[in-house]
Amino acid sequence: SSEYSVTIGAEFSDGERLVSSFEVVVANEPEIIDLILSNNRFPENEKNSPVGFLTAIADDNNQDANLSYLILDDDGNFSIVGNQLLAVNEFDYEKTQQKTLEIQVSATGYETLIKNFKLSIEDKYENQAPSDLKFFSAGISENLQTGVWIGTLLGVDPDPFEILTYSLGIGGQDSDLTVSSDGKVYTNRIFDFETNDSVTLSARVTDGSGQSFDGNFVLDILDDFADNNQSAEPLGGISGRVVGEDGLPVDHFEILAFDANDTRAEPVPVHTKLILHQDGDYDLKIMPGRYRLRITGAYRTQPYHQVFKPEYFAEGEIAITREVPHLPRMDWVLEQLRLSTESSDADLLEVNGTVLDGSGNPLEGIAIEADSSDGESWKYPIKTSLTNDEGVFSMNLEPGKYRFRSHDYEGKWMQASIVDEVTKGIPIKDLDFELSLRGRMTVSGNLMTTQALPANGKISFWDWEKETQLVQPLSGSHDLVSGQYSYELPLGKYLVKASDPRGVFMD
Fold it and tell me: Residue 373 belongs to what domain range?
C-alpha cells in the first residue's frame, strides 16, 4: 500500500488532551529488480565471441529506461556493446573452463543492481599434429631382393581415431627405400654389407588435416655370412640328456652359458642356440670359448608337475675350440626342488579336501599347492597334490601354518587360497575349494624372421610368476604363411616365447 493513516495524541500538563489524524502518502521510486543474461556459454579459441544479451527488469515495467551496463573488476577479457556481452580475448578450455563476472546495471531514477554470472567455456575440437613416429624393423639382410618388405612405420597422434598416412620424409625422395601409404617399408635395391653396413630412412606421418611429423631411422645391414665363408650359427656344440634322480626325462629346461672370464655378480649369458628333443635330449650350439654352464627353469608335467633345482655343470668350466668344436656327451641329473626338510612318515599329518565348481561339480586335475604361511612367492611350493575324478586331493605335511592354493594348469579356473594350521595329531579333512571360471583375453601378433618374412616357428605362453609353467591356450591358431597368430588365454600375465623347433633361428 502507498497510503497510510496516522493518529497522534498529545496531553498537556493541565490535563488537556489534543488528538489529530494525518494521511501519509508514500511516493514510489522505481527499482531494477533483476538482470538476466540470455546465454552463459561460449566456445574456446575465438576472439570477440558473442556470449549473450543482457535484459534488466524494473518494477515499473518501463521499457524506455536508459539502461547502462558495467563489468566490475574488469580484466579486459570481456566487454559489453549495447546490451550484448562479448568475450574479447581467446580462452583455452584446457586451461580455463569457467569465468565469473560481476555486472552492474543502472539507469537515471532507478536503484542500481549488481549481479554475478558464471560463464562456461566450451571445449572445441582442435586438430593436433602427430607427435611421434616409430619404426619397427630387425634390419635389412644383405643381398635381399628389391621390393621386399623390411619393416613398418607407426605414427603417434594425440587425436583419437585419426587416419594417418605415411610417405618418405624430407631428403628421402631418392631413398634406397620406399614407403607405402599404410606405413610398410620396402627395399628399392639390393644392399651390400661390405660397402655400407647401415642405411638411413627419412619418413613422414601425416594426419587428415595435413599436419605431419618427420623421423629419421638408421637400419643395420645384416651381413650375409655366405659372402665371406662364415656362418651365422654358433660353430661349436654340446649334446646330452637331462633327467631327474629317478632316471625319467625332464622335458622343459633352459641351459645358459656364461663367459668364464666374466666375474660380475650377475653375468650376462652369451649367445647360444638350445634345441630340445624328446625324452630330455638336447643340442646346445655355441661359439668357441671358455664357459660355465647353468641349467634353469627345469620341470616336467608327467606323471605330475615337478620342479627341479637350478644348478651349474658339476665339472666346472668347459672349453669349445675351433680344433675341437664339439664336446663329448654331457648329461645332467637334476634334484627335485624341495623347500622343506623331509620328516619321518610318523611326523607327517594328512591334509585332504575337495575342489568343486560353483554348482557343486567336482573338478579333476586341479593342483593344490602348499607353502609356508609367511612365504612371499608360489614359484616353488612345498607340496603339490592333484585332484582325482571326484575332485578329492590329499597330502602329508609337518605340523605348522601353511597357505594352500588351488592352481589350474590349464588356466580355465580362477585361483583360490586358504590359510590354515596343521596341528600335531589333528589332520585336516575338510580343506574345500570352490572355484569360478576365469575371464579370457586374446593375444595376437606376427611371428617374423629378421628379414621381415613369416617365420616357421612356435609361440608358447608361460606363467609370469612361476616362469617354468607352460600355459596351454584355450583356442587359437598360427598361420605359418602370413606369420599372424591369435590365441585365447585365461585372463592373466604371461611370458611369451617364440622358438624354432628346427634350430635355424634364435629363440
Answer: 345-435
Measured between alpha carbons, how far is 334 from 70 in angstroms, rounded to an integer?
A: 90
Residue where one domain finishes, among candidates 227, 251, 277: 227
Give the N- to C-terminal CA distance of the chain in Å, as an integer: 98
CB neighbourhood size of 151 (10 A): 21
Would you place residue 116 in the very low, low, confident or very high pLDDT band (cuts 50, 70, 90)? very high
Strand, coil or helix: 224:
coil
CA distance 79 to 388: 83
The tens digit of pLDDT for each residue in 5-52 reads: 999 988 888 888 888 998 888 877 788 889 999 999 999 888 999 999
Q: Which of 125, 119, 128 is nearest to 88 (CA)?
A: 119
Candidates 350, 340, 456, 329; CA nearest to 396 is: 350
Q: How far apart are CA 14 and CA 178, in angstroms?
A: 125
CATH of the domain at 78: 2.60.40.60
483: alpha, beta or left, given left = phi > 0 and alpha = psi -120 to 50? left
Residues 483 and 446 in one domain: yes
For residue 151, what are the CA distances in angstroms to 101, 187, 196, 205, 391? 57, 10, 19, 15, 51
Same domain, 426 and 466: no
Mean pLDDT taken over the chain: 82
Q: For cell 631418392, what's the residue?
A: 174
Burial of 416 (0-12, 13-18, 19+ CB in 10 A): middle
pLDDT band for 182, please (50, 70, 90 cuts): very high
**Strand pairing report for 440-446 and 484-490:** antiparallel
pLDDT in tens, 270-290: 878 788 887 888 988 888 888
Please tell me whether residues 223 and 157 are part of one structural domain.
Answer: yes
All three cell numbers of 198, joined, read 647401415
Q: How far apart are CA 62 and CA 437, in angstroms?
A: 75
The count of structural domains within the chain is 5
Interatomic CA distance for residues 30 and 454, integer angstroms: 88
The pLDDT tens digits for 468-500 are: 566 778 788 888 888 889 998 877 788 888 877
Per the domain annotation, does 3 fall within a domain? no
For the residues 130-146, what does the mean pLDDT come to?
Answer: 87
Task: Give the model's pLDDT for residue 501.
Answer: 63
b/e 295-333 (16+ beta carbons within 10 angstroms → b): bebbbbeeeebbbbebeebeeeebebeeeebebeebebe
pLDDT band for 344, please (50, 70, 90 cuts): very low
Q: Is residue 21 part of a domain?
A: no
Same domain for 215 and 257, yes or no, is: no
